[in-house]
Each structure stands twice: as C-alpha cells, then as structure tokens.
Automatic annotation (TrEMBL):
The keyword Cell membrane does not apply. The active site is at E244. It is found in: Membrane. The lineage of its organism: Eukaryota, Fungi, Dikarya, Ascomycota, Saccharomycotina. The keyword Zinc does not apply. This is Mannosyltransferase. One of its GO terms (cellular component) is Golgi apparatus.
C-alpha cells in the first residue's frame, strides 16, 4: 500500500482557490502559534515552509500568543513572512499560571517522582503551564473567540509537500472536528491518573460520551511496549498536537468543557504532566464521533524526531515511503492502531 503514490483526499469535498481569484472568501480560521520571543528564528522557518507549500495561495491570518508581550523585533520578523493578517495575543497571568487549587506539597512530590524517572520537562513549571493552557484555555482567549478552526504551528517544524486545496474548508465542508498527521504512544507516568479521572467523569456523566467514540483506540495497547498498564487502562496513543487542525467549537462545547473542569479539579497538569496531546486525544476520542477525526496523510510534516512522510510527487523529501522516525524509536508509532480501530 505504501508504494502507491498519493495526491489529494479522494471522495471528499475539496475547494481549490483559482489563480487570480480576488474575491475568494476564507473560512473562519487562523493559523496559530504559542511561541516565545526567543524562538523567532524557529517560527520564521516554520512559517516560511507553510507559506511556500500552502498558505501563499490562501493568505489565512496568523495569531501569535505568548505569556509575555511580543517584542517589536519578533513582530517585524514574523510579519515579513506571513502572507495574511497577523494578530497578537498576550495570555493573562490568571490563565497561564499554576491555579490556586494546586497543593504545593503534592506538586513537589509529583514532579520529584517524574524527575526521578527522567521524564522530560518534569520540573519546568512553564511546561506544565503550557500543557494546561493548550489543553483547555487557548480557545477562550479574547482574540480567538472570533475563530472556529485553527492550525497549530510550532517553531522548527517542517512542511515539505505542496497542498493545493483549502485545508480549512476541507475541515468545514466535510464536517471534520480534528485533523492530525502523527500519532504516538506517551510516557505513561505523565498521564498516570488521566484515565481514571476521565472514567470517573464519564460514569457521572454518561450523557457526554459519544456513542461512536474511538473507544478501542483509546484502550487497546497490545503491541505497546511503552505504556503497559502504567496509564491505568489508557493505551496512551495520542495525536501529536504540535500539529493539529481542529474546530475550537468542539472544545467550547459542554462535554469537553465539563470534562476539562474535572481535569482541572484533579490537578494532573501539575501533579503529573498531563500533556495537551493526550488530553485533546482522549477528549476527541470519547466525546466526538470518530468519523470526524482525519489523518492528513498528504501533509508532509516533521517535528523532531518524527514525521508524516507521504509518498507523493508533491513532496520534497528524500525519505522512503512511510518513513516515520529513526529506527530506534519506530515502535512509538501508533498510527496502525488508529487505522485499525477508527473504521
Ligand atoms: P515539546 O515539543 O514538547 O518539546 O515542547 P516545545 O518546547 O516545542 O513547546 C511547545 C510549544 O509551546 C512551542 O510552540 C513553544 O514555543 C511553546 N512554549 C513552550 N513553553 C512556552 C512558554 O513558556 N512561553 C511561550 N510563550 N511559549 C511556550
Ligand atoms: Mn515542540
């Protein structure tokens, strides 16, 4: 199957903007990046590639968010490479910082355990803030309220296949909620009680669970060396959220919002290191119809050390078809589970 070249999604609604179409109406969407001033060079590199492969034709706006003011130098740098409007948003401290319900002693012992097990970023408080913010807060920012769809972009990622159709209209017109390129198993220690907290919530609120959720995908972990039983029944397979194209109205909806409140109350963003990737994935997997999740197999994407590598004439990569990562981490790929269990 992998030797067969792919092009654009088949049997789906696709909109192509024609050259010289000056009246083209954009979907209600923004490119989005939470980024630090110090990452200017890396984000410019990512934007350049996204513009060259796709957005030069559409000129979708870009929203930059930060827990500090962006510097004039940062603004000048990104405005030179963005083809659409640019917006900036500073995150209020009340949203970004560790909330008052977090018990300092439990936080301290929690991160000590993670650090002792060499979990990345365990003791970096800003990383916990970032994961919590990306899990349940970014779409509530004043400047994001006007948008429905976002495409998340990180510094130092690569886009290496030409995409001709309007990706946001693809989401809209095919009624999709969540799009991804790469999916991985997680380090179970970072989400040790996420599943238990979630199951408790679902037992109390069964009405929120979607009858066509991706239950098997969330729980089957037969060929998973990384997440035996450490995550309490969650396979730890998740969509890698440094790339995501999604509908924020899903997060804003009652099911996800109420569930997120329960996660906040449990405190796992700090006592453990719940990532926004497993949180979005568990939320989408339980509270949305799995047919509304889309693997963008045609979008060439790389964030070290993994990638989605389409076999297509539209790509400028040298990798062989299906390349995912250096061989020593190949077993972290759980895309086969999604393919198996999402149909
Ligand atoms: P990793 O991919 O898990 O190693 O994490 P990253 O360091 O790439 O962080 C994820 C995203 O959040 C990137 O877009 C970073 O620029 C952004 N980010 C992480 N920490 C902070 C922070 O403290 N402030 C801001 N403004 N952005 C952050
Ligand atoms: Mn990153």
């Amino acid at each position: 199957v992998l030797s067969k070249k792919i092009d654009e999604p088949k049997n789906m609604k696709l909109v192509h903007k024609q050259d010289g179409d000056t009246d083209y109406e954009l979907a209600n969407a923004t490119l989005l990046s939470l980024v630090r001033n110090s990452e200017l060079e890396g984000i410019v590199s990512s934007i350049r590639q996204l513009e060259e492969t796709w957005n030069w034709r559409y000129n979708y706006p870009f929203t930059f968010i930060n827990d500090e003011e962006f510097t004039p130098e940062f603004k000048k740098g990104v405005e030179e490479v963005c083809s659409g409007k640019v917006y900036y948003e500073v995150i209020p401290k009340s949203i970004w910082e560790k909330p008052a319900n977090i018990d300092p002693a439990l936080y301290k012992s929690g991160i000590a355990k993670l650090a002792a097990n060499k979990v990345n970023y365990a003791s970096l408080e800003s990383y916990h803030n970032m994961c919590r913010f990306n899990s349940g807060w970014f779409y509530r920012l004043e400047g994001l309220k006007k948008f429905k769809y976002y495409w998340r972009v990180e510094p130092n990622v690569n886009f290496f296949c030409k995409v001709d159709y309007d990706v946001f209209k693809f989401m809209r017109d095919n009624e999709l909620t969540y799009g991804f390129t790469v999916s991985l198993y997680d380090e179970p220690l970072t989400v040790e009680t996420l599943w238990k907290t979630t199951v408790d919530f679902c037992l109390a609120h069964p009405e929120y669970v979607h009858p066509n959720g991706a239950f098997k995908w969330l729980t089957e972990n037969q060929q998973n060396p990384h997440s035996t039983n450490g995550a309490g029944g969650y396979s730890t397979c998740h969509f890698w959220s440094n790339f995501e194209i999604a509908d924020m109205d899903f997060y804003r909806g009652e099911a996800y919002s109420k569930w997120f409140d329960a996660l906040e109350a449990a405190g796992g963003f700090y006592y453990e290191r719940w990532g926004d990737a497993p949180v979005h994935s568990v939320g989408v997997g339980l509270f949305e119809d799995k047919s509304k999740v889309w693997w963008f197999r045609d979008i060439g994407y790389h964030h070290s050390p993994y990638e989605n590598s389409p076999h297509s004439d539209k790509c400028s990569t040298d990798h062989e078809p299906g390349y995912f990562a250096p061989p020593d981490v190949y077993d972290q790929n759980c895309l086969p589970n999604w393919i198996r269990y999402s149909m």
